């Protein structure tokens, strides 16, 4: 939030106060809303990325939930905040309705009725 400190009148506010004064969202919120969208695009081949390289799918399993569960890699503490690591639990906890949606518009809240 370095640039917000240069704006007159809010230079002495806390980070949360900066965000609310400028009508911005926190990094955690942006990640929580953007990561599922990007994961949907990768898993459904809407982006030109090799799915198996980023996060391999679990495949056939008897676990509850949807059929597109992804596996996390063994990682060191340094890598836990990388996209391919932090999205695993979030993606696997999504309901089947969201993961198997017809379009990415579901995540934008536009196409909720099935």
Features of this protein?
114 residues; mainly alpha
Number of strands: 0
Major sheet attributes = none
Structural class: mainly alpha
Order of helices and strands: HHHHH
Weakly predicted, low-confidence segments:
none
Tell me roughly what share of residues is in helical segments. Answer: 25-40%
Determine the strand fraction and express it as a percent band.
Answer: under 5%
Rough shape? Answer: elongated
In round numbers, the mean pLDDT is 77
Report the span from N to C terminus: 40 Å
Report Rg.
18 Å
Number of helices: 5
Could you characterize what this model shows?
By secondary structure, the chain is mainly α. It is 38% helix and 0% strand. The chain is built from five helices and no strands. The longest helix is centred in the N-terminal third of the chain and has 17 residues, at 27-43. The model has no long low-confidence stretch (mean pLDDT 77).
Give me a quick take on this structure.
The chain is mostly helical. It is 38% helix and 0% strand.
Summarize the helices and strands and which ones pair or pack.
Blueprint: H1 15-21, H2 27-43, H3 51-54, H4 83-93, H5 96-99
């Amino acid at each position: 939030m370095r640039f917000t400190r240069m704006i007159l009148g809010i230079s002495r506010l806390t980070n949360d106060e900066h965000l609310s004064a400028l009508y911005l969202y926190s990094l955690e919120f942006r990640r929580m809303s953007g990561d599922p969208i990007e994961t949907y695009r990768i898993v459904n081949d809407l982006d030109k990325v090799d799915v198996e390289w980023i996060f391999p799918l679990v495949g056939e399993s008897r676990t509850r939930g949807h059929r597109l569960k992804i596996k996390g890699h063994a990682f060191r503490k340094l890598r836990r905040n990388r996209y391919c690591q932090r999205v695993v639990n979030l993606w696997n906890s999504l309901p089947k309705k969201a993961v198997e949606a017809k379009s990415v518009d579901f995540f934008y809240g536009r196409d909720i009725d099935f």
